[in-house]
Amino acid sequence: MANGRDLKLIKDFRFDEENVSTVTSIEQINVEDNCEELLYQTGLASEIEPDLPVLNRKQHLEFLNSSLKYLPKGYEVLDSSQPWLCYWILHSLSLLENPPNAEVSSALVARLARCQTESGGFGGGPGQSAHLAPTYAAVNALCTLGTVEAMALIDREKLQKFLYSLKNADSSFSMHHGSEADIRGVYCALSIARLTNIYTEELFSGSAEWIVRCQTYEGGFAGVPGMEAHGGYAFCGLAALFLMGQEDLIDFPAFLRWAVSRQMKLEGGFQGRTNKLVDGCYSFWQGGAFPLINLILKTKEGMPMPLSLLFNQEALQEYLLICCQHPRGGIIDKPGKSQDLYHTCYGLSGISVAQFGFDPSHPTVIGPPENKLVPCHPLYNITSESAEKATTYFQSLPCPCPGRLI
Q: Are 57 and 96 within 8 A, CB to CB?
C-alpha cells in the first residue's frame, strides 16, 4: 500500500477548484477528497497494523445471508428483478466460500421456478413476462447453486425457442418481445446458450458483425451503433465476441487504449465512461475485460505477453477494501453511498478479478491471506468452479435440434 503521507502529495492531476464549472467536476473533487482521506488514514494505520486493509468477510456474510430472508422496503422497486437479487446474493456468497445450505438452496430453486414462463425464459417475478436480463440472472443463479435440482429446472428446448424468437433481422437480440434491442441482449443470449449447451451457429449468425458496429470512435462499445462507449456495454461486447470465437473482429488497439484509460489515478477504481466518476460496480464491468484482453495478446504474434493484468490490480483492491466496504457489510458505489446487493456482487467480483485475473495459481492479494476470494469466470461472472460444473452437466445433454423450432 502507498504510504499515507505520500497520498497527501498527489495533487498534480487534481482539478483547480477555482475553475470548476460543472456539477461533475465538483463531485469529482468531493470523491477524491473522501478517497484521499480514507487512503491516507489507512496508510498511516498500516504502519502499525501491516495486515491492512482487511476484507470484512463476517459483515458481508451477515448482510448477504440476512438479505436471503428479508429485504428492506426500499427493495420493492426491484420486484421485477427477483432473479437478479438471487444471482447477486448467491454469486457473492460463492465468492466468499459460503454457499447456502440444502434447504435454502431448494427454496431458491422453487422461487426461480415461479419466475419461469411457458416460453422457457424467466420473468422478473412470478407472473411477469419473460425477459432476457432476468433469464440470464436466473441461469447464472441456478448454475451457481449447482445442484441437479437447480440445473434441471431449465427447460432447454423451450429456452432455445425463446432465444430464437428474440433475434432480429439485423442479428441483434431484443430484451423481450416488442422491446429495445442492444448489446446486452446479444451477450445475455450467448451466455445463456453457451452455459446450457443450446448454442447453434444459426442462432447467432450475423451477431458478431452487429456487435462490431457498436464499437465507437473511442474504442469501447456502445449499447447500439452510434452511441457512447460504456463499461457495461464494452464488457458485453467483448465477452460476446469471445463466446462466438470472433474476438479478432474488433479494433483491438483502440479498445485496449480505451480500457486502460478508465482506471482513476487517485481512487484506484474504474469509471464507466469518459469524464465520469469512479463506481465500484465497474470493478468488474471494466476489470473483467482485462483477462480477456490478455488472452487476445497471447494469440497475437510479436506481442509480448504481459506479466500481469494491464491495470493496477493492487490499487483496485485498495479502493474496494478501503473506500467501498460498508461497516454493516456490503460493498458501496463510492464513499458516502449506501450498501446494496448489486454493488456488493460486482465489487466482490472486481476483487476476484484483481486477485486471480492473470494467473489463478499465483493470486495477487493485498492485505492478509484471508482476503483471498474464489476465482470467477471472466465470461459469465459466476465462479470458475460453478461454470465448469454447469458446462460438464449441460454438455452431457444433447443440444436441442433447431429443426424442431419451426
A: yes
Instruction: Report the phi/psi class of residue 174: left, alpha or beta, with left for phi > 0 and alpha for psi in -120 to 50.
Output: beta
263 phi and psi angles, rounded to 5 deg: -80, 130
The closest of 314, 231, 246 to 279, measured between CA atoms, is 231
Instruction: Give yes or no for a contact between 251 and 320, defined as CB atoms under 8 angstroms apart.
Output: no
- Which of 349, 280, 290, 288 lies closest to 320 in space, CA to CA? 280
Write the burial class of residue 70 (CB in 10 Å: 0-12 exposed, 13-18 middle, 19+ buried).
exposed
Residues 118-167: tens digit of each pLDDT: 999 999 999 999 999 999 999 999 999 999 999 999 999 999 999 999 99
Q: Which of 142, 132, 138, 145 is nearest to 172 (CA)?
A: 132
What distance in Å separates the CA atoms of residue 24 and residue 162, rounded to the nearest whole number?
Answer: 42
Cell of 160: 432455445
Residues 168-207: tens digit of each pLDDT: 999 999 999 999 999 999 999 999 999 999 999 999 999 9
pLDDT in tens, 80-120: 999 999 999 999 999 999 999 999 999 999 999 999 999 99
Angle, helices 82-95 vs 102-115, to 10°: value is 150
Residues designated catalytic: 230, 273, 276, 279, 281-282, 333, 340, 343
Stretch among 51-55, 154-158, 238-242, 298-302 having the lowest mean pLDDT: 298-302
